[in-house]
Amino acid sequence: MHHTNIHTLLLGTNTSRKERDYLLVAKARVPMHGREEAEEFFDGGDEDHEVGCSVRIERQIPHEGEVNRARGQAQIPNIVATRSTSGEVYVFDIEKQGEPFGADEGDTNAATSQSKKPAPLGLAWNPTRPGVLLTGGFDTMVYSWDINGRTSPGGVLKPVNCSAVHKADVEDVAWHPASADVFASVGDDRRLVIGDIRTKGTSVTLPEAHGDHIFTVAFSPRAENLIATGAKDRKVLVRDLRCLKDVLYDLSYHKKDVVCLQWSPHDPALLLSGGLDRRVLVWIQHRKSCYSCMEGTAGRSATWPGTRTRGPP
DSSP class of residue 222? Predict the structure, then answer.
């Protein structure tokens, strides 16, 4: 007998404005136990057990422009934030909004931030403070938002904090896993910034954290002093927050830009990286080596199994 879990997936469309774009909510059925059972499951089973990988799109939520990024809130997974090319941040309740998949019409009913700059990228929910969102974009600013005061769908929010910490596009942002006020941001100015929303100035700025544009940043959830960054220089660099100028590990195996990172929630030594070389790499920190390489993937997003049961990576 095959035991499975049901997970919620978030998907985004990119129709280049030729058709309406949607945030899609899907259900995926995945195996619970054992490598052999998992391999059989994803191979489609056998003649005696009709099982296979099952992903079904259930709802669609109209979205203004393509969905560049989508993030589910850890504390309330049905609350989802997205970023589009219009320069807006949209917040949805995926259980209450949208329509069954395949319907022709729908109501956007999204709360939006009042940001008019084009194509922002950074997006992160606070892991310890529900309803608090961090964003960064092409206006060189890092904003924090609080959706807890929203009174009705469709309302427009203003940021509760603005940090002028970069001199070029902000590519990614991240909250510290243990401190509700501390964040990290990286950008095309090659800066790594460790900031605090309680202060207007930045706590720490490393002006030349990489040799080129920095695209992604991630705090370790298990080793709170470790932070990793990935950049156009094809490197993944790991640093200790207590001595940020020094590089602990220089991980070089990607052939093109490194665009996403995620630490393992189970083992503080393991780190995933994805690049435009269509590779997803698994790193073991103390060995300073690539443990595993998966080629042929898109490389724009990567996540560990069991990181979350709902929402996107």
Answer: S
- Cα of 120 vs its chain's centroid, Å: 13
pLDDT in tens, 208-236: 999 999 999 999 998 989 999 999 999 99
CB 165 within 8 A of CB 157: no
Using the structure block, give the residue that is written with the tokens 């904090």. 161
Residues 6+ away with beta carbon under 8 Å from 123: 69, 71, 81, 82, 83, 89, 133, 134, 135, 173
> Is-above-0.85 flag for pTM?
no
Strand-pair partners of 174: 184
| Element holding 67 (H helix, E strand) | strand 67-72
Burial class (CB in 10 A: 0-12, 13-18, 19+), 101: middle
Question: What's the order of all strands across the beta sheet hosting 67-72?
Answer: 67-72, 79-84, 89-93, 111-113, 156-157
Dump pLDDT digits (tens) for 244-294: 999 999 998 899 999 999 998 888 888 999 999 988 888 887 776 666 666
